[in-house]
Design a protein that fits this description.
mainly alpha, 162 residues, 8 helices, single chain
């Protein structure tokens, strides 16, 4: 282990704000570098020897940047199918809610498709959709809007003195 890697790992192992998996992996790698066995390191940290060996092997291949990073393909797989995702995106872009609202909320969209509101939020975040933001000019539904518009524009075109 290089001295630069040791400095980074010591910093990680003492962190109080880093993810727990990163702190424990850094402590394990430091213990291994100091000559401790895989079994004794795992026992001291409350982990399994196979896990400590995997951390060591991954560090040797990928370096200090890989410490505490969850490998691709690990973790829980998404439980929502792609058809539902595409339906959420399509409805967000091309339809309005039946309740008369001007834009979808995550709760109304979730209710429509039978998913959770957090799922809708994740889909919108992944696609950078913000249905609550309006990027077009809106006309007022006030019946006297036109008369008021003429008055305001008239004031700008022919302002009174003072």
């Amino acid at each position: 282990m290089s001295s630069a890697d040791r400095v980074v790992l010591v910093h990680m192992s003492r962190s109080t704000s880093a993810p727990h998996r990163k702190v424990v992996a850094a402590k394990a790698l430091l213990a291994l570098a100091d000559g401790c066995s895989v079994r004794s390191t795992a026992a001291r940290l409350g982990s399994y020897p196979n896990t400590v060996a995997r951390w060591r092997d991954r560090y040797l291949v990928e370096g200090v940047e890989s410490v505490g990073v969850i490998a691709a393909g690990r973790g829980r797989k998404p439980s929502i199918d792609s058809d539902t995702i595409e339906a959420i995106v399509s409805d967000t872009l091309h339809s309005v809610p039946d309740d008369g609202a001007t834009a979808w909320s995550c709760r109304t969209m979730a209710e429509r498709h039978g998913v959770g509101k957090d799922t809708v939020q994740r889909v919108w975040r992944a696609r950078n959709l913000k249905p609550w933001r309006v990027e077009t000019f809106k006309l007022s539904k006030d019946p006297d809007f036109e008369a008021k518009l003429v008055d305001v524009v008239g004031l700008y075109l022919d302002p009174p003195e003072r």
